[in-house]
Design a protein that fits this description.
This protein is α/β, with parallel strands linked by helices and 355 residues long. It has one domain: Divalent-metal-dependent TIM barrel enzymes (TIM Barrel, Alpha-Beta Barrel), CATH 3.20.20. The strands form 2 sheets. The protein has an 8-stranded parallel beta barrel with strand order 1-2-3-4-7-8-9-12, surrounded by 4 helices. Strand 10 and strand 11 form a beta hairpin. Helix 4 runs parallel beside helix 9, helix 12 packs parallel to helix 13 and helix 13 packs across helix 14.
Amino acid sequence: MMDMTLRYYGPGYDSVSLEHIRQVPGVKGVITTLYGTKPGEAWKLEEIQELKKYIEARGLRISGIESVNVSDAIKIAGPERDRDIENYIKTLENLGREDIHMVCYNFMPVFDWTRSELARVRPDGATVLAYNQDVIDKLDPDHMKESIESMSNGFVMPGWEPDRLDSLKELFALYADIDSDTLFANLVFFLKAIGPVCEKYDIKMAIHPDDPAWPIFGLPRIITCKASYERLLRAVDKPYNGITLCTGSLGTDPNNDLVDIIHYCKDRIHFAHVRNLKYNTPRDFEEAAHLSSDGSMDMYAIMKALFDVGFNGPIRPDHGRMIWGEDAMPGYGLYDRALGAAYLQGLYEAIVKNN
C-alpha cells in the first residue's frame, strides 16, 4: 500500500498547518525539510529531532525528506566538493539515526524548476503555474529575481531563495564550462560517495527529474526521460539509487511515456509526485487539477502502473491550483492538493478492488 503524503515546508515557512494536513483523508505523513539550511551544510541531529517531534506531536509522521539540496560545488566538482559531500553524508547519517529513509534531491544547475507564470488564470477562475517557451526565450536570467518575487504572493519559493537569486551571475559563471556529460559524471561521483551511508541506514535516494525536461538558458539537463534513467540506474546499480517519479516534470515533454517509464524503473521508484498538466501548444503548458479530464494525462493509467509494479513508497499530490480564495504559496495551497490526494486515493482503491 502506497503512503499518501503532503509536502510540508516546516513551521514558519508553510502557509498550511499540520492540523489541516492531518484532516485530509488518508494522509498520515508529510514530506518535509529543514528549509532554513543551505546546500553544503550538515543537518544537525538536534534540529532533525526537533522537527520530527514537532510533526509527531500533531499526529503525523515524517515519510521522507524533500530536499537535502546538493551544493553547486558538488555539481560542478568545485574545490569544496569533498567538504560538502562529507556534510551530506553526515546529514544522511543523522536522518538514518532518526529512522528517516527517503531523500528526494535534484541535480539541476542554477534553477530547480522554471515557470513563466505562477498564477495563470484558467477559465474557471482558478490560478495555476504555467510555462510558455516564447516568454522564457525573451527573459534575461539576470532579472529572474524580480520576475519570481513579483509572482510569488509574498512567499519564498523553493529553489528560488533570495540569496540564490542574488547570485545568478556568479552561478551562471560557475556552470559556463559544465556540459551534460560532465554534470552526469559529477552526479555519479556523488552517488558513489554517499553509497556506504545509504546502505548502512537503508536510505533511498530519489532523484527528481529536471523541470522542464529540456535545456534552458544554455544550462544542461540530464534527468529528462527514460534513457536518462537507464543511464543513471546502470551507472550506479544499487538499490539506494532510485528516482522520484514526477509525472508533471517528466510530462512537460509529451514524448515521455509515463507508464513505460514506471514499468522500466519499477522498484527503483522510491517516491512519486503525481499531478496533471494541460498541453496548449508544443511550447506552452499549464498545470491542471489532478482529475484526468482537466488536463492531458491519464491519471488512472499512471496509478494503475504504480500498482502493477508494486510501488509502496511515499506519494504525494503535487502543485495544486489556487482555488476558493486561498492565500498560499503558488502551487502549495491546501484545498486543491487535498482534492488531489482524495482523487488519487479513490483511483487507487478502485484499482485494488478490481485486481
